Amino acid sequence: MDPQGSPASVPGFAVGHAGHPEHPTGVSVVLCPPGTVAGVEVRGSAPATRQLDGLGPGFWDGEVHAVCLTGGSSWGLDAAGGVMRWLEEQGRGQMVGNWRLPKVPTAVIFDLPLTQGRGRPGPELGYAACRAAGGDPMPRGNVGAGRGATVGKLYGLARASKGGLGGAALRVGSLVVGALAVVNAFGDVVDPTGYLVAGARTAPDSRELAGTSLWFLEGGHRKAFHPVEDNTTLGVIATNARLDRNQCCKVAALAHHGLVRAIDPVHTTFDGDLVFVLACGSEPADLNGLGIMAAQVLQMAIYDAVLSAQGLPGLPAARQLRPRPAPSRLGGPR
Taking a C-beta distance cutoff of 8 angstroms, is the pair 199, 151 a contact? Predict the structure, then answer.
């Protein structure tokens, strides 16, 4: 496992970030080599996306040129226009008649409460993220789409923790899998030992973690968007395996096990969780084994995102909090 890895650990892929100069929001882009095939699996109930409908099983196996992840909720989808412009200038995209059409699947996180709705990412930030794209080591933490990410929103932003952007990579023989995660979850983040390391806190001035699942296990009820917030964990998996569209979708489904292990609770009605899989290469791979690799690197990318994050005023990061056992992993309330 390479804890400093990312999709850029896979030959031909590059990752770039751009942040708003005044507000905690931004854009992250994964640029793809020629011939990249993509799939997606959406498990959360509240996604906001662009150009995802052609990535499901049964659709045409067309080439994907980049993936754009952005803050700003649905407003941030405009950032994809800047990514498309940059790709067109570089001569990258599907030729349709006389026109070059880049394909840029895009997904957003909801960071408007942190930005107060200002500084929404637009085409200029998408373009800047492409210009900044490069290889490993990838910048992480409060960068790109992770700038406005938060976790543990059971009690709203006042008792949440800082989320962020992270990555990891894994090599088995000549097969390489790299992951990027933007962690803006409703639930809490769990480390590999089963301890909560970031999430909802017991009070606005506290460094103690409350345990979101414990609150539900003790009979709590939560109305949607009260207090106002939305949540999403976005994952991008890149690999040099030889896959078609349907196989990419299956690996994306298996990769969600990384979210299940790292976030508690996950895939709620308040989350828009999704995972992209990008494949470009000739390496043969066992589909189940590849899915296990993808889940493992995505789990570590989520953990890396919160450990790399820097706290903001009133919003501490994992490095400032006191870990505690994850309540729902211990059989219920204690």
Answer: yes
| 164: Cβ contacts below 8 Å, ≥ 6 apart | 140, 141, 142, 143, 146, 149, 182, 183, 305, 306, 308, 309, 310, 317
Tell me how many degrees the CA angle 267-268-272 measures, rounded to the nearest 5: 65
Per the confidence metrics, is the pTM higher than 0.90? yes
Starting at the edge strand that comes first in sequence, how are the strands of the sheet with 195-198 ordered?
263-264, 188-190, 195-198, 324-325
Structure tokens at 157: 């932003």
Taking the chain, what is the end-to-end CA distance rounded to the nearest angstrom? 34
| Domains and their CATH numbers in the chain | 7-330 (3.60.70.12)
Of 145, 109, 131, 140, which is closest to residue 24 (Cα–Cα)?
A: 145
Beta strand 49-50 with 99-101 is unpaired
Q: Are 189 and 303 in contact (CB under 8 A)?
A: yes
pLDDT in tens, 92-144: 988 888 888 999 999 999 998 888 878 889 999 999 999 999 988 999 999 99
How far apart are alpha carbons 21 and 28 in whole angstroms? 15
